[in-house]
Specification:
- The protein has an eight-stranded parallel beta barrel, surrounded by six helices.
- It is globular and about 70 Å long.
- The chain contains ten helices and eight strands.
- Bound molecules: 3-methyl-2-oxobutanoic acid (KIV).
- The site of 3-methyl-2-oxobutanoic acid has 11 residues, from strand 6.
């Protein structure tokens, strides 16, 4: 088996371990950075090899791996399992884990207790969804020594309140509210803010107004970094939202491999002599 990296993937350069300050430096230097979700050993180690600096153990594990229709079904126990799997598997990337729906809305104490468990599982920062009303939670986590990523715009845990997957911040008032929320979360101590399904112009304005990096998903090129759900990025999920670019066709590749395996087993050509023991 070859251990060489594909020629098209540049070897990672820069620090041996990515820390929060490196994301901050990237913003200050105007150097866009790429984040991907990861949920297990295979995805995490492949993305580390590809030089991805920040891995998000997203609560999207509920919809992409566990078969739920919404991230509201992802539990804290799920997050602990998948965070530990990713954290055990990688050395260089910064590992960020989502606080699951229901683990922080009830108050700062719940946020800190669940945040501590995610850190014990290996998270180096936690992410929560929401704006100004969550300032006490963000402050409490930061005071407990747990770095926080915010998440504004379309927030999947509030899919019911948003009436589905809809772009947020389109009108002037909503855009102003988004900026106010971003500033409030930043002032509470957040280290970065994910902006999801936000018009590119609005995301660029919020990015320019913040000291901390923004990470966009469906928020245009004006964010400091970008994040995608890995199965969308790799063409495995088949999801073709406007903001998604599939950089491979893993679904097709995997289907072909499974089909060839099945055909060879059915024809009796696999396993052959070289796959068998004397
Ligand atoms: O859970 C997740 O994958 C996320 C991304 C959409 C940012 O929160």
């Amino acid at each position: 088996m070859s251990t060489q990296s594909p020629a098209a993937v540049p070897a990672p350069s820069g620090p041996a371990k990515i820390r929060l300050r490196h994301l901050q430096q990237a913003k200050e230097q105007g150097r866009p950075f790429a984040m991907l979700t990861a949920y297990d050993q295979f995805s995490a180690t492949v993305f580390e090899e590809a030089g991805i600096e920040t891995l998000l153990v997203g609560d999207s594990v509920g919809t992409t791996v566990l078969g739920h229709s919404s991230t509201t079904s992802t539990t804290h126990a799920d997050m602990l399992t998948f965070t530990a799997a990713v954290a055990r598997s990688v050395h260089r990337p910064l590992v960020v884990a989502d606080l699951a729906f229901g683990t922080y809305e009830t108050g700062p104490r719940d946020a800190v207790l669940h945040g501590i468990e995610l850190v014990r599982a290996g998270a180096e920062a936690v992410k929560l969804e929401g704006g100004a009303p969550l300032v006490p939670q963000v402050s409490a986590l930061v005071e407990a020594g747990i770095p926080v990523f915010g998440h504004l715009g379309f927030t999947p845990q509030s899919v019911n309140a948003h009436s589905g997957h809809r772009v947020q911040g389109r009108d002037e008032e909503a855009a102003e509210r988004l900026l106010a929320d971003a500033l409030a979360i930043q002032e509470a101590g957040a280290s970065a803010i994910v902006l999801e399904l936000v018009p590119a112009r609005v995301a660029a304005e919020v990015t320019a107004a913040l000291r901390v990096p923004t990470i966009g998903i469906g928020a245009g090129p004006g964010c400091d970094g970008q994040v995608l759900v890995w199965q969308d990025m790799a063409g495995l999920s088949g999801f073709r939202g406007r903001f998604v670019k599939a950089f491979a066709d893993l679904r097709g590749t995997l289907r072909e491999a499974a089909g060839s395996y099945r055909a060879e087993v059915e024809q009796g050509s696999y396993p052959a002599a070289e796959h068998s023991f004397e």
